[in-house]
Design brief:
About 0% of the residues lie in helices and about 35% in strands. The chain is mainly beta and about 55 residues long. The protein is globular. The termini are close together. It comes from Formimonas warabiya.
């Protein structure tokens, strides 16, 4: 895993239920999140670099 798990980040909505950090209710349990790339110009250009496939 890239980051540790923590309590759900309730202000962050995540619907990717195949992610290791996904928690029911559409919450993220990563201790931090990283969204890339730096120079994105719209939503289609962004990527959650914290994503790890659920085992």
């Amino acid at each position: 895993m890239r980051v540790e798990k923590s309590d759900a980040i309730t202000r962050v909505k995540c619907v990717v239920n195949t992610c290791e950090y996904y928690q029911s209710g559409d919450h993220c349990t990563a201790s931090k999140i990283e969204i890339q790339p730096q120079n994105a110009s719209d939503t289609q250009d962004t990527d959650c670099a914290t994503f790890v496939t659920r085992r």
